[in-house]
């Protein structure tokens, strides 16, 4: 499926996650080094927050089958287990979600590739899945956290949206491409233009107004989960037609597609062991076959020696008497040559 989620996907997903506000973090673990799970429980909600790199996030009702404990998962356990989630929010229009946790902690999940998870205390980094430094941005323990900054289109007023869209339309000469550059991505750009019932190359001001109005309307759409092929969306898309499957939540649709891709680590371990055993058996079979071939060869050699025993014995007797090679070969037709004291014979 699409990986990572877009900022608009995350906008709808965070709306779903709001229902776990005031829940408590019960347990944290990792499925592998790229897949983390947080068990939460509240008065009305319980389940598992799941994050998979580089950019998938969803809420699950069922616990994944297997688990392991990385050093980062241990750090999270020691700091925020049994603490309350006070708020869940998207940072501006970024693909970043922030869980505000009691005692001044924040769990930040970045869905921008390659993805990252950070634990903050008073906005200072206490730990991260990955540490990195590039440009003016540093992810390092003890550093103050600073999020990426791009166009905050999800929180703009209508007039500012109109201004930003006009700039991008003049640059691209295409409404769908302009919306994609605004931050919506190609699929949602095409969808909003289609819902606006304007042409992509219609550059009139009134067409932009209809596009902005349709975008604001789309933001207020009630979310569910829709699967089209191998893609999950929080809203029904008229550009893609009827969905293959429909779910009550966006998370359920994401989980369905992830379940098709994510393998149980225990099953993978057993499969690897089975392959190793099969390889070992095959090698033993090959070795046995070679031994059988060698045994058959030696059996035939033994039979030939037995059949020509008297000839061989007579040859050895003359050789010990010191007869010359030519005389030996003349007398004993089975002798071909003598090489470093070894008699080379040929038996039919």
Weakly predicted, low-confidence segments? none
Distance between the termini: 70 Å
Q: How many structural domains?
A: 4
Alpha-carbon Rg, integer:
37 Å
Widest sheet, order of strands: 5-6-7-8-9
Structural class, from helix and strand content?
alpha+beta
The CATH homologous superfamily of the largest domain is called: ibrinogen binding protein from staphylococcus aureus domain
* Count of DSSP-assigned helices: 9
CATH class of the largest domain: Mainly Beta
Biggest sheet: strands, sense, closure? Answer: 5 strands, antiparallel
Number of E strands: 16
User: What's the architecture of the largest domain, going by CATH?
Assistant: Roll
Order of helices and strands: HEEEEHEEEEEEEHHHEEEHHHHEE
- Portion of residues in beta strands equals 15-25%
CATH topology of the largest domain: ibrinogen binding protein from staphylococcus aureus fold
Mean pLDDT: 88
Portion of residues in helices?
A: 40-55%
Silhouette: elongated
């Amino acid at each position: 499926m699409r990986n990572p989620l877009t900022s608009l996907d995350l906008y709808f997903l965070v709306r779903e996650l709001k229902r776990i506000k005031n829940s408590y973090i019960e347990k944290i673990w990792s499925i592998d080094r790229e897949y983390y799970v947080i068990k939460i429980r509240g008065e009305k909600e319980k389940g598992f927050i799941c994050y998979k790199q580089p950019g998938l996030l969803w809420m699950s009702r069922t616990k994944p089958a297997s688990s392991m404990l990385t050093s980062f998962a241990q750090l999270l356990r020691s700091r925020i287990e049994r603490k309350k989630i006070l708020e869940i929010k998207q940072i501006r229009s970024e693909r970043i979600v922030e869980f505000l946790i009691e005692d001044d902690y924040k769990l930040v999940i970045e869905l921008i590739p390659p993805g990252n998870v950070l634990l903050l205390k008073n906005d200072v980094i206490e730990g991260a899945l990955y540490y990195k430094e590039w440009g003016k941005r540093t992810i390092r323990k003890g550093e103050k956290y600073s999020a990426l900054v791009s166009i905050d289109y999800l929180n703009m007023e209508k007039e500012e949206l109109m201004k930003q869209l006009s700039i991008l339309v003049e640059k691209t000469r295409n409404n769908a491409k302009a919306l994609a550059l605004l931050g919506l991505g190609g699929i949602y750009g095409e969808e909003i233009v289609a819902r606006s019932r304007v042409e992509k190359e219609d550059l009139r001001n009134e067409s932009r107004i209809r596009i902005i109005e349709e975008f604001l309307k789309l933001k207020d759409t009630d979310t569910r989960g829709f699967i089209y092929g191998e893609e999950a969306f929080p809203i029904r898309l008229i550009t893609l037609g009827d969905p293959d499957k429909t779910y009550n939540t966006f998370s359920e649709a994401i989980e369905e597609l992830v379940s098709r891709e994510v393998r149980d680590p225990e099953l993978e371990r057993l499969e690897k062991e089975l392959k190793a055993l099969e390889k070992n058996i095959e090698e033993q079979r090959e070795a046995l076959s070679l031994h059988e071939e060698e045994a058959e060869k030696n059996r035939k050699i033994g039979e030939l020696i037995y059949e020509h025993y008297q000839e061989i014995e007579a040859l050895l007797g003359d050789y010990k008497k010191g007869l010359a090679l030519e005389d030996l070969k003349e007398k004993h037709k089975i002798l071909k040559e003598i090489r470093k004291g070894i008699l080379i014979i040929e038996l039919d």
